[in-house]
Amino acid sequence: EAQVTQNPRYLITVTGKKLTVTCSQNMNHEYMSWYRQDPGLGLRQIYYSMNVEVTDKGDVPEGYKVSRKEKRNFPLILESPSPNQTSLYFCASSFRGVGNTIYFGEGSWLTVV
Amino acid sequence: EDKVVQSPLSLVVHEGDTVTLNCSYEVTNFRSLLWYKQEKKAPTFLFMLTSSGIEKKSGRLSSILDKKELSSILNITATQTGDSAIYLCGPSGNTPLVFGKGTRLSVIA
User: Fold this and answer.
1) Which of B83, B85, B87 lies closest to B101, judged by CA?
2) In this complex, which of B48, B96, B98 lies closest to A99 when CB atoms are compared?
3) How far apart are CA A106 and CA B16, in angstroms?
4) Please, which of B22, B23, B46, B91 could form a disulfide with B35 given CB 3.0 to 4.6 Å?
5) B5 touches chain A (CB under 8 A)
6) Which residues lie below 8 Å from residue A80, measured CB to CB, with a gap of 6+?
7) Is pLDDT at A99 greater than 80 in this prediction?
């Protein structure tokens, strides 16, 4: 089954404790992206990747890191989480080119206290 | 820098009403525009519009792409409470996988 898998789905952590949210897709997609969603602000793109070893900043990259060492995986790293990073996070992927839909993970609820 | 503006940001209607949601975009090397519906979970796909497919329809929902005006509309006729959701538009250009802030639609019985 084609899917994008995120883990953890729910996490409460403390300020400053490094954490990684994993994202894996099984569709051999080139494009992958991370978003955060806050009330009234829609999906804001954090980082995106157009292929292995190719990543770029989105609209809100501060406080986040990513890597794309393998095509299927695109982890989101919070080196020193802060309370303003409390949010709902989505990972997504798609093929390159025109006419391709975007597949989303189920979301990760992250709370930083 | 690519930009996506959706309007209105929020809308409350009664069941049976018809609504029109707007999406305007400025992207480099425009490829396609996607519409998604988001309830209390991950967004789900509604439509894809491209240069070769500027009008799509599915049941009570329809969408049109205006490449000249760099905009798209999503129409929902005879709204139902199940249409209550956030509707997201995402034009694809040099920066892939970007979305607007969304329109929050609330349909009241």
Assistant:
1) B87
2) B48
3) 31
4) B46
5) no
6) A15, A16, A18, A63
7) no
Give the type of residue at B93.
Answer: G
- The predicted pLDDT at position B23 comes to 97
B87–A contact, CB cutoff 8 A: no
Q: What is the pLDDT of residue B97?
A: 84
pLDDT for the residue B50: 87
Average of pLDDT values for B90-98?
83
Strand runs (DSSP E) across chain B, as ranges? 3-7, 10-14, 19-26, 32-38, 44-50, 55-58, 61-66, 71-76, 85-92, 103-108
* For range B18-39, the mean pLDDT: 92
Ranking A26-35, A84-93, B27-36, B90-99 by mean pLDDT, the lowest is B90-99
Contacts of A79 (CB under 8 A, 6+ apart): A18, A63, A65
Query: Out of B6, B32, B98, whose CB is closest to A98?
Result: B32
Helix (H, G, I), strand (E, B) or coil at A104: strand
Contacts of A96 in chain B (CB under 8 A): 96
Cβ–Cβ below 8 Å for A43 and B43: yes
Nearest to B99 by CA among A44, A32, A61: A44
Residues of A in contact with B86 (CB under 8 A): 42
- pLDDT recorded at residue A98: 65
Smallest Cα distance from B31 to chain A, Å: 6
For A102, the closest of B86, B90, B102 (CB atoms) is B90
